[in-house]
Design brief:
InterPro entries: BLOC-1_pallidin, Snapin/Pallidin/Snn1
Structural class: mainly alpha
Distance between the termini: 194 Å
Strand content: under 5%
Mean pLDDT: 82
Organism: Xenopus laevis
Number of strands: 0
Pfam families: Snapin_Pallidin
Protein name: Biogenesis of lysosome-related organelles complex 1 subunit 6
Keywords: Cytoplasm
Order of helices and strands: HH
Length: about 180
C-alpha cells in the first residue's frame, strides 16, 4: 500500500489526533491504564492509520460535494432573482390589463354620455316645437275668444236694436 502525501487539512487532522492521543496517554485515569505499552502504541498507530485512510477516502468526495452545493446555492439565488423579475413582469402585465379595462369602461361611458347628450338635444328641440305650437294654439284660442266676444257684442247690439222701445212722450202734441 503506497502512502500518499497528506494535504494541509489531513496534516492538521493528523496533528490534532496525535495531540489528543498523547493527552490520553499521559492521563493516569485513562482507560488504557494497565495495558502493555506495545499494545497502546500498536493501537495508536492503527487508529492513526485508520483515521488517515478514512479522511483521505472521504475528504475529496466531501470537498467536491461542498463545491457542488455552493454552485447549486448560487444557481438557486440566480433562479430566485429571475423568478422575482418574472413575477414583477406579470404584475406589470396585470396592471396594464387593468388599465386597458379602465379605458374600455371609459369609452363605454363616453358613448353613453354622447347618447344622453343627443337625447337631451332632441328633447330640447321637441319641447321648443311644442312651446311654439302651444303659443300658436294659445294665440288662435285668444283670437277665437276675441272673435266670439265681438260676435256676442254684435248680437247683443243687434238684439238691443231689435227690441221694441217704448215711445217717449213728448211735450208737444202730435200734429196729426
Amino acid at each position: 500500500m503506497e502512502e500518499e502525501e497528506p494535504s494541509d487539512g489531513q496534516a492538521a487532522n493528523t496533528n490534532a489526533l496525535n495531540e489528543a492521543h498523547q493527552e490520553t496517554a499521559t492521563r493516569k485515569d485513562s482507560v488504557d491504564e494497565g495495558l502493555p505499552d506495545d499494545f497502546l502504541s500498536l493501537d495508536k498507530k492503527a487508529v492513526e492509520q485508520l483515521s488517515e485512510g478514512l479522511i483521505s477516502h472521504y475528504l475529496p468526495s466531501l470537498q467536491s460535494s461542498k463545491l457542488a452545493l455552493q454552485e447549486l446555492t448560487q444557481n438557486q439565488v440566480v433562479l430566485l432573482d429571475t423568478l422575482d423579475q418574472e413575477i414583477s413582469k406579470f404584475k406589470e402585465c396585470n396592471s396594464i390589463l387593468d388599465i386597458n379595462a379602465l379605458f374600455t369602461e371609459a369609452k363605454h361611458y363616453h358613448n353613453k354620455l354622447v347618447n344622453i347628450q343627443k337625447e337631451m338635444i332632441m328633447l330640447h328641440e321637441k319641447t321648443s316645437k311644442l312651446k311654439k305650437r302651444a303659443l300658436k294654439l294659445q294665440q288662435k284660442k285668444q283670437e277665437e275668444n276675441l272673435r266670439q266676444e265681438q260676435q256676442r257684442e254684435r248680437e247683443f247690439e243687434r238684439e238691443k236694436q231689435l227690441t221694441a222701445k217704448p215711445a217717449k212722450r213728448t211735450l208737444y202734441p202730435n200734429p196729426v
